[in-house]
Amino acid sequence: MKKNVLITGGTGFVGSNLTEMLVANGFSVSILSRSKRANKKDVSYYIWDVEKQTIDEAAVNNADYIIHLAGENIAGARWTKKRKEAIVDSRENSIKVIHKVLIKQNHKLHAFISASATGIYGAINGEAICKETTPPAADFLGRTCQIWEAAVDTIGKLGIRTVKVRTGLVLGKGEGLIKKLKPIFKYRLGAPLGSGKQYMPWIYIDDLCAIYLKAIVDDSLHGPYNAAVEDETNNIAFSKTFAAVYGYKMWLPHVPAAIIKLGMGQMSKIVLTGRRVSSEKIRKTGFKFKITDIEEALRKVI
User: Fold this and answer.
1) Which residues contact 250 (CB under 8 A, 6 or more apart)?
2) Contact (CB, 8 A) for 201 and 274
3) What is d(CA 241, CA 208) in angstroms, rounded to the nearest whole number?
């Protein structure tokens, strides 16, 4: 009988691609959704409501593994106080729903694997290469990831193996940021943001999904892993490369940080800051990134 993987946030960009990979590798997939959807071969849908703390418990009871991707989009809207609360609550409270069912039904998963983010190291520019042992930052991104991962730890206290996938910028066709950037660069309007020196840890979607798959099949994986290519891509390099794949050299000046801050408010930290991260820990497990060249990745997304 096929092992079942329950995915929260399974209808999003990462979840959709991950579902395809899991099914192709012999798993059945269950997806938690806020609205009823028609089941497909090897893919079933269940309803939950995080705000009301309700869930179809069969989704959890039938699961051998859970992959937790659910959470409000950090870059979805300006960071008002209410928006910040929603970003944190969506990540923490969605785990609470599942935690309650696991206790109630005394259901032992093989593993609980959760998304996290390289933002745990903070919205700070610098040359330091952050490892999983690097202390979390005290800013909004750092605190959000800490709360997120602390919620995952409550699952671990039930005797369930837990893995935290600290993800960088995900590159792939249909990804939100890339969809917004493509027309800008296509029409030769691309330019570095702010100083352009901010690092952009990135990963191609297929490699990210492969890390989740490895976290399922390899029982030795436990705790946090950085999911990003370890290179020196900063915003200038990214922008120059994106322009190059469209066949031109950047000609516009840097977009001033002040203008970006005016338009995005506090959320501008997402694009004006960035940390370098190490991928040594995940590579030591035997995992190999298939795409490590930023140009190759960007050519694939266009």
Assistant:
1) 190, 191, 192, 239, 240, 243
2) yes
3) 21
